[in-house]
UniProtKB/TrEMBL annotation:
Residues 247-500 form the NPH3 domain. The keyword Transmembrane applies. InterPro entries: NPH3/RPT2-like (IPR043454), NPH3_dom (IPR027356). PROSITE patterns: NPH3. Belongs to the NPH3 family. The keyword Transmembrane applies. It holds the Pfam family NPH3. This is NPH3 domain-containing protein.
C-alpha cells in the first residue's frame, strides 16, 4: 500500500478530496468526513472487509479543532502528475502492505487551498476532473508550476499546464472585467506569474482592451458602468476627472496594488502608450487610494508612482501634482532614490511653480521656518537640466528669477535663516536671469534689518548677488542713505551709477544711445549721409533713449549729498575716538609719574 500524505496548505480550512469505489468524487466538509470515517471504519471492522482497506487508507482524515484542516491523500495518485510530490520520496513509493504517513506542508502555495483542491481533483480523476475557467486559469497555471506538473510521468493523460496555457492564450477575448480580475489575481501569484509568463499575458490582454474606444467597451455601455460614474458621480472625490476615450479604464485599475500598478504602467509605456495618459492615470490612482491608507501603503504608492513618472516626458507631468506628492511624502521618509527623482522632476518644471509651492515647512528638529535647502536643490536641478545644452532658456530663467525674488522676500524675515543659505539663494542664478535687481535689494535690506548682528564682511558676501548697474536710481538713492548696508556697498553703487551715466553719454560700446548727426541738407531737409562735418560747420546732436539728463543729474547730486553726509558722520566719530584716546594717554602718563611709556598708542586718525 502507498504512502499517506498529510498536506497542509498554509493552514487554511479546506475540504477533503478522495475517490470512492465507483470512481466518482466526494467533496465533503470536515464534519461530514469525520462521521463518514467513523461509519466506514465500523463497517470494515464489523464485517472484516479486507477489500475495504484501500478505501480506508485513502479516506482517512484527521479532524482538528480551531477550524484547521489537513488533506490526507494518496501519494500513489498524486506522484504521477506532480513532480514535486514524486521528488519528496526520491522517486520511490512503497508497495504491497507497506504503509506510512508523510506530512507535507506547502507554504506560499499559489491560489491557496482552493487551488490545491482543484489540483487534487485533477489528479484523482486521472486528468479529467475540474474545468479551467477565466476565474482560475492564472492560479491553476501557477499552481501547476509550483507542483512541477510539467514533468508528469503520465504522458497519456491531459496536461494541466497545457490546458491552462491554452485558456490564458485566449485572454484577449475574455470580458474586460474577467481580465481585470485576472490582474488582481496575478498580484498574489508573484513571482510565479512572472516566470510562467502569466503576467505578460494579462498585461497584453489589458492593453488590447484599452485600445478599444471608450464607447465600445463594456464599462461604458450603460449609466451604471464605471465609465459613466467616472465622469458623473459627484459624491466621490475620486471621480472628478472627466472621462475620455483613452481614460475610461482608470477607475477599474485603481484597485491594483502599488507594485502591480507600477508594473502595469511600465508595460503601458513599453507598448507605446502616450505619456500624458500614463501620467494622468498615476495621479488619479494616488488621488483615489491615498485617502485613508496607512503610512506604509502611502509610501509604497508614492514610490511606485514616482518611479514611473521619472521615465515620462517632462511636459506630461503636472507641476502642481508633483508638489502635491511632495507635500504628502514629507512625513513618510521615502527612499533616497525616489526622493531625489521627485526633487529633480520638480526642479525641471520650476518655472511653472508658484510661491505657495516653494514655501515648504522646514523638517522637524530645525529652527528655520522654511526648507531653504530643498529650494536650493530645486534650483540646482533647474540650472543643470533646463535646456538642450544643460542651461535653461532665457524666458524660463527670467521666470524663475522673478519667483526667487518673491521667495527671498518671504524667507528674509526668518531670524533663524543662516547667512550662508541666504547667500546661496541670492547668488544661485546667473547674472543674465534678472534685468532689474530692485527686488533683490529690498529682500536683502529686510534680511539686514532682521539680522542686526551681521558683520560687514558677512554683509558684503550677501551683497555680491546685487548688480549695482541694474539698480534703479531710487534704489541707489535709498542704498546711499541706508545704514544697514556697509559703506563699501554704497560706494560701489555710486560708482556703478557714474559708470552707467558715462556709458550713456558716450553712446556706450555699441553706439546706439548717442550718435552725431550732420545738419540737414537745405535742399532736401534730410540729414546728410557723410560722416565729415565740414570743419565745424556741422552740428552734433546728442540724444538718449528714454533718458532725462536733468533727472539723472538730480539723482546723482542726491547720491553725492548722501555720501557727503555719511563721510561727515564718520569724521565726527573719528574725532571723538581721537579725543578719547588722547585723554587715555594723558591719564597713563600721569599715573606713571611722568615717565614715558615704552609703547605709544597707534595713530588712528589724522
Amino acid at each position: 500500500m502507498g504512502c499517506v500524505l498529510e498536506v497542509d496548505v498554509d493552514g487554511e480550512e479546506v475540504f477533503l478530496v478522495d475517490k470512492v469505489m465507483d470512481g466518482c468524487f466526494l467533496f465533503l466538509p470536515l464534519s461530514c468526513c469525520f462521521l463518514l470515517l467513523i461509519l466506514t471504519t465500523y463497517l470494515a471492522v464489523f464485517f472484516q472487509l479486507p477489500s475495504f482497506s484501500p478505501l480506508l487508507l485513502n479516506f482517512y482524515c484527521e479532524f482538528q479543532w480551531k477550524d484547521v484542516a489537513i488533506f490526507h491523500l494518496s501519494e500513489d495518485i498524486l506522484a504521477p502528475f506532480c513532480g514535486r510530490i514524486n521528488n519528496l520520496a526520491g522517486g520511490e513509493r512503497l508497495g504491497g502492505a507497506g504503509r506510512r504517513t508523510r506530512r507535507v506542508v506547502l507554504r506560499g502555495f499559489p491560489g491557496g487551498a482552493e487551488a490545491f483542491e482543484l489540483i487534487a481533483r485533477f489528479c484523482y480523476t486521472g486528468g479529467g476532473g475540474g474545468a479551467v475557467t477565466a476565474s482560475n486559469a492564472c492560479a491553476l497555471r501557477c499552481a501547476a508550476q509550483f507542483m512541477d506538473m510539467a514533468t508528469a510521468e503520465v504522458s497519456t493523460a491531459p496536461s494541466l499546464v497545457k490546458m491552462t496555457e491554452k485558456a490564458i492564450e485566449e485572454m484577449p477575448q475574455w470580458p474586460w472585467q474577467s481580465v481585470v480580475d485576472a490582474a488582481k489575481q496575478c498580484q498574489r501569484l508573484l513571482p510565479l506569474a512572472d516566470s510562467t509568463g502569466v503576467f505578460d499575458k494579462v498585461v497584453s490582454a489589458l492593453l488590447s482592451h484599452m485600445a478599444v474606444p471608450g464607447d465600445a467597451t463594456p464599462t461604458s455601455s450603460s449609466p451604471e458602468s464605471s465609465a459613466f460614474r467616472f465622469s458623473c458621480d459627484t459624491k466621490s472625490s475620486c471621480l472628478s476627472m472627466r472621462c475620455t476615450s483613452r481614460t475610461w479604464w482608470f477607475e477599474d485599475l485603481v484597485v491594483l496594488s502599488p507594485g502591480m500598478t507600477e508594473r502595469v504602467a511600465k508595460a503601458l509605456l513599453a507598448k507605446g502608450t502616450d505619456d500624458v495618459v500614463v501620467s494622468r492615470f498615476l495621479f488619479y490612482y494616488l488621488k483615489c487610494r491615498i485617502a485613508g491608507a496607512s503610512a506604509d501603503d502611502k509610501k509604497a504608492m508614492l514610490e511606485a508612482a514616482i518611479t514611473v513618472m521619472a521615465d515620462l516626458d517632462r511636459s506630461s507631468v503636472s507641476c502642481k501634482g508633483l508638489f502635491g506628492i511632495l507635500r504628502i511624502s514629507s512625513p513618510l521618509k521615502l527612499a533616497g532614490a525616489c526622493h531625489d527623482s521627485l526633487v529633480a522632476m520638480i526642479g525641471h518644471k520650476l518655472d511653472h511653480a508658484t510661491l505657495d509651492n516653494l514655501l515648504v515647512p522646514a523638517p522637524a528638529g530645525t529652527s528655520s521656518l522654511y526648507d531653504v535647502t530643498l529650494v536650493l536643490r530645486f534650483l540646482d536641478a533647474f540650472l543643470h537640466g533646463g535646456g538642450a545644452h544643460g542651461e535653461p532658456e532665457p524666458p524660463r530663467l527670467k521666470k524663475v528669477a522673478t519667483l526667487m525674488d518673491l521667495y527671498l522676500a518671504e524667507v528674509a524675515p526668518d531670524p533663524s535663516l543662516h547667512p550662508t543659505k541666504f547667500v546661496d539663494i541670492t547668488t544661485a542664478l546667473p547674472a543674465a536671469a534678472r534685468d532689474c535687481h530692485d527686488a533683490l535689494y529690498r529682500a536683502i535690506d529686510v534680511y539686514f534689518q532682521v539680522h542686526t548682528r551681521l558683520t560687514d564682511a558677512e554683509k558684503m558676501k550677501i551683497c555680491k548677488g546685487i548688480n549695482y548697474e541694474k539698480l534703479s536710481p531710487e534704489c541707489c538713492k535709498h542704498l546711499a542713505r541706508n545704514t544697514s548696508f556697509p559703506t563699501r556697498a554704497a560706494v560701489q553703487a555710486l560708482a556703478s551709477q557714474h559708470t552707467v551715466l558715462k556709458s550713456l553719454l558716450r553712446g556706450g560700446s555699441s553706439g546706439q544711445h548717442l550718435k552725431p548727426v550732420s545738419p540737414p541738407d537745405p535742399a532736401t531737409g534730410k540729414p546728410r549721409d557723410d560722416g565729415d562735418l565740414g570743419g565745424g560747420g556741422g552740428q552734433v546732436v546728442l540724444y538718449a533713449r528714454r533718458l532725462d539728463l536733468s533727472l539723472e543729474n538730480q539723482n546723482l547730486r542726491s547720491l553725492v549729498d548722501g555720501m557727503h553726509w555719511r563721510v561727515m558722520e564718520l569724521e565726527k566719530v573719528c574725532s571723538r575716538m581721537k579725543t578719547q584716546m588722547t585723554k587715555m594717554k594723558a591719564a597713563r602718563r600721569a599715573a606713571a609719574g611722568g615717565r614715558a611709556t615704552a609703547r605709544s598708542l597707534p595713530r588712528m586718525c589724522s
